[in-house]
Amino acid sequence: MPGLTRSRPLPRRCYVVCTEVPPGVVGGLGRYAERMLPALRDLGVPVEVFGAVGRRLPARTERDGGLTLHLLPTPGQPGPSPAAHPPEAAYPPQAGFAREAARPQGVLRPLVRVAGLLAFNVRVAARILRGGRSGAVVAVHDWMGCLAGILCRLLGRMPVVFHVHTCEHNTAPGARRTAVTAGITALEDAQARLADLIVVPSASMRDQLVARGWPPGRMRVVPHGFEDPELVRLAGLSPADRDRLRARVRARYLPGGAGRLVVFAGRLAPHKGAHTLIRAVPSLLRDGDELRVVLIGSGDRAEVTRLIEREGVAGHVVADCRFLDPPEVFAHFLAADVCAFPSTYEPFGLVAIEAMALGRPVVVGPGYSPEVAGDGAVRCRTGSPEELAAALSRCLDDPGHAAGLARRGAAHVRARYSWARTAESTLAAYAEVAR
Length: 435
What we know:
Blueprint: H1 2-7, E1 13-17, H2 28-41, E2 47-54, E3 60-64, E4 67-74, H3 92-101, H4 108-130, E5 136-141, H5 146-156, E6 160-163, H6 168-171, H7 179-194, E7 197-200, H8 203-211, E8 219-221, H9 229-235, H10 239-253, E9 260-265, H11 274-284, E10 291-296, H12 301-311, E11 317-319, H13 326-335, E12 338-341, H14 350-357, E13 362-364, H15 370-373, E14 378-379, H16 385-397, H17 399-416, H18 419-433
Parallel strand pairs: 1-2, 1-5, 2-4, 5-6, 6-7, 7-8, 9-10, 9-12, 10-11, 12-13, 13-14
Antiparallel strand pairs: 3-4
């Protein structure tokens, strides 16, 4: 990366505060850390990461070349979820706080998690402040590391970069404002005022935060990468192997594998669009035609079941309400005639990028930033079932349109996104503030 080193000196060390790190990958933040941290390490700057693990796990430090990972036991922090693939950028720690705080019986759990995160942040700040400060940058990921960033900025005068991956707790349509979410918002605002730079994954998220009063001059848009090893492997399959995999998955849902298959992946929360997709199904049905809409992801099973029954589409919608591991999720994308991600709030939307990378036609909701999917996906302008049904119908009924969309999507992803590029842009942001 010679251009970067000529323009600005690189930081001597990066301290990264990211509560969810491997092996405890349970959400989008963990998936980001899993891919991003090694890419950052490979650019030659020592990276020291502080992550939170369940309190039953021992504290430990792991080293891999220039990457040092400190795992600190933290009350209320979920443990690792083996082979879990939470479909896209849901960031369960934030969503979980909001949901639990909204229920009377869930008051104790979020309080334990808040107390645990406070203790985690204080411990992390103390360790960073005892370490080398000269030429170092502190990178804070989401509100869960804000207190550590604030303490390092105020007590150590260290440069801080605030990575904001989502503001789902107060920005997503229908988000409920509670005492916990109000506290999270205040913490974010305080960190935003003190941060030297704020990094977000899309232009739409930047615009939302600027409208909230955050400083536009200190905002940087750095998109995420997409390359998962299994996804790359599947994308490189021969046509014959791809057809065999598609046939295996389709046979689970369609008699003899014949018919039309629509796949959704994401939490079954209203703003992710699963409910809109269910309501769109009656408009997709044709006499004598087999149609299956498969919903991959966890959520309120009872609410989804009631909606499926109310719409009269029980024979056409499959909702397992569970996570699948990455190979199975990607295999479902490959098997689909069209993938649907009709979110009304989506800071980046990695699942859509993954499906596009696999050469599948994709329809996304109005929550996607226009530049994220570009011309490689159909972006609905509203969250209405009617518009979604029309977009899906065209993909299902017009093979030429679907094939062209798939080609443009794959080309868009490969030209625009990679973890190596994300790491380079991130390090360039750190170099701006290193001193």
